[in-house]
Fold this protein.
Amino acid sequence: MGKVVALMIMLLLALASVVACFLLTGIINAGEEQMDDGQRRLAHGQDRIKESEVKLATGRRKLSEGKREYEQANENPLLIIVDNLLNRGRSFKDARQRIAKGNTLIAKGEEAVAAGEERLAAGELELCRGRERLLLARRLRAACAFGAACLVSLSIALGYRWRRSRASSAPAR
């Protein structure tokens, strides 16, 4: 009776290993889809960061040109007098406000690019962790499959051997 219980336990363990293989396969497939989606999102994010850096560089260049033009105009006393007479000095005041606004926008853009780069770095780290988890899941699936194969083989071999020993030890009638 103990041999039958041992065989049943081995077969149940083999069945559990096979079920674990199927469950791990489903988890691995879902993980691979998530990895693909994450990789696409990471590539999209890298493209957006590059675009933002280009826009930021363009904004810096325009701001620098605007500051240079303002300084040149501010050094010309004739322009200052004409602006004061015709516009009550509004042109220079507007230019100062636009330069200040440009400085603010550049600072916000730099912060946004830095935040985006941090999110990208976090995404890359998460992808790396995901790859490691997938590798572990694949290894675990292989171990479960190997364990199931060994348990089934052992059950068959022991069942055959124990059956023969029972048949030969049975009393003749």
